[in-house]
Structures are given as structure tokens and as C-alpha cells.
Write the C-alpha cells for this entry.
Amino acid sequence: MNEYPLTSIVTLALVVLWWVLGSRVSLARETYANKQQNPEMFHSLEIYSDADFMIAFRNHQNLSEFLVVMWPTLWICASGVSDLVAASFGSTILVGRIWWARNYSKSISHRSAVFLCLFSFIALLLSAIGGVIYALIQRF
């Protein structure tokens, strides 16, 4: 039986978002390659070769880099504090990352989403640290 159903839902939603953004990279790569005279030559693009490809790639890469740090913190918070607290911060991060992804290509309009994700992650991190410290105090 899953003891952390809410955190599991948030985790799966973030995996789906990661997959959707990854598929956007593939579509941008295909679009760029089809514009060229010899599309077979462009199966692996340079990141800055096309603006649309760069936006899709960076958007996906930013999420990938963030998830490496966020997922362990999310699950430490879920196990050390509560499923509800971890899922609340995680879902706020999910909303921020969707907002970020939708507005990434529009100059600086994704800045609010960046701050939403940042403050939600800091709260998640502090909760996880607090849960670990509390567990250590209880143990010793």
C-alpha cells in the first residue's frame, strides 16, 4: 500500500511534464531539420542553431536540472514531515513549472513563475531539513 499517495501523484505529474517538454524538443528538432536542404545532416542539432529549438531544449533542460535536486527533497519531506506538506509544495512547484514552460519563450514574462518555483522549493527544502533534524533529535 502506498503511504504517500499525494506525493506520488505530484511525482507522476512532474514526470508527465518532463516527457511533454522532451517531446517538444523532438518536434523542434524535426521542424528545424525539415527546413534544411539535407535534413539527414541535422539529426543532432547544436543548441543555438535555431531559436525555436534552443527554447524547447533549454526549457526541457532547465526542468531536468531542477528535478535532480527537487525529487529527493520532495520525498525526504514526505517521509520526514508529511505527505500533505510535501504534495502541497510539490504541486505549487508543478504549477510554477507549467507556467514557466508556457512563458519561457516570451522574454522575461516567466520571471514570476521562477520566483514561485524558487520560494516553493525553499519552503520544501526547509521542511525536509526540519523533518530530518526532528527525527535526529527524537532518535538521540
User: Anything to note?
Assistant: The mean pLDDT is 89. DSSP finds four helices and no strands in the chain. The radius of gyration is 18 Å. Residues 5-139 form a domain with the Four Helix Bundle (Hemerythrin (Met), subunit A) fold (CATH 1.20.120.550).
